[in-house]
Design goal:
273 residues; alpha/beta; six-stranded mixed sheet; three-stranded mixed sheet; 12 helices; globular; binds acetoacetyl-coenzyme A
Length: 273
């Protein structure tokens, strides 16, 4: 699957018209790239609206099984747009609610999201990456929650997702000092899955997405849901919900196909049913 052979999915008409993102679909893998180079892909209200719309469309398109979310070599995303936020009062930000839909939408996206980071993943940008299921980063990528440096705190879930990912004390240090960590440090904390040479982050993330896309979509969706529960509920409730999802898969054609293919020593052909 070559990145040079992107085609637009017929189900995603109008996607070419985005101003702040690009969307390309190659078979079962879609790649969404943040594209505000002049602002290091900072999240402004237009980008939020476009990204939410793209995720809606990709979730509804049954041919798409996994999504890679990337920025550019220079920056995955430098956070919320400080210029846009600078004039907002408390009333404005809480009423306009122009930022939170992006983390909310990405956080409840039903298909796997693979984040491909390079350059900077800061503030709301790191929070967006933490809405993803797998995180790949280029060597030297800087990750952080620098909001404290501009007199605010993370607004997109960083105070909740970061401690769950790296533990309370590491998260507290990052959030209270605003210091950035490198991709290598982030990997050692469990915040990044793989660190790859510069220029390889998109390729590596796509490789993982292709692998995930080859599995049964119903089983993948159930696994993602069960894992999400592990971050939100206690162990016994999580185990119970896992069991329900596990039992449910025994009613699917993909389960029948997967097990038959194993016994017949052939590759399964999953239909997502
Ligand atoms: N919002 C708006 N514009 C931004 C931006 C942001 N978050 N981050 C960078 N930019 C803009 C810069 O203003 C600059 O624009 P101009 O050329 O017009 O001046 C351009 O992108 C390039 O940035 P720099 O010149 O600063 O590039 P650099 O390589 O010297 O530094 C950086 C890179 C360390 C990432 C630095 O840009 C920086 O510190 N950015 C801000 C990071 C930040 O504070 N993020 C948190 C935002 S708040 C947030 O996200 C809240 C939340 O949780 C919801």
């Amino acid at each position: 699957m070559g990145l040079g052979f992107f085609t637009f999915s017929p189900g995603l008409s109008g996607m070419e018209n985005y101003q702040t993102i690009s969307v390309a679909v190659d078979g079962p893998v879609a790649t969404v790239r943040l594209n505000r180079p002049d602002a290091l892909n900072a999240l402004n209200s237009v980008l939020v609206r476009e990204l939410v719309g793209a995720l809606d469309a990709l979730e509804a398109d049954d041919s798409v099984r996994c999504v890679v979310l990337a920025g550019s070599d220079r920056a995955f995303c430098a956070g919320a747009d400080v210029k846009e936020m600078s004039t907002l009062s408390m009333d404005d930000i809480s009423k306009a609610d122009h930022l939170s839909p992006v983390w909310e939408r990405a956080g409840r996206f039903e298909k796997p999201l693979v984040a491909a980071l390079s350059g900077y993943a800061l503030g709301g940008g790191l929070e967006l990456a933490m809405c993803c299921d797998v995180i790949v980063a280029s060597e030297g990528t800087k990750l952080g929650q620098p909001e404290i440096n501009i007199g605010i705190i993370p607004g997109g879930g960083g105070t909740q997702r970061l401690p769950r990912a790296v533990g309370r004390y590491r998260a507290t240090e990052m959030i209270l000092t605003g210091a950035m960590v490198t991709a290598e440090e982030a990997k050692s904390m469990g915040l990044v899955n793989r660190v790859v040479p510069p220029g390889k982050y998109l390729e590596e993330a796509t490789k993982i997405a292709v692998e995930i896309a080859s599995k049964s979509p119903v089983a993948v969706r159930a696994a993602k849901k069960a894992i999400a529960a592990s971050q939100e509920v206690g162990l016994s409730q999580g185990l119970e919900s896992n069991l329900m999802l596990f039992y449910g898969l025994f009613a699917t054609e993909d389960k029948k196909e997967g097990m038959s293919a194993f016994l017949e020593k052939r590759k399964p052909s999953f239909k997502g049913k």
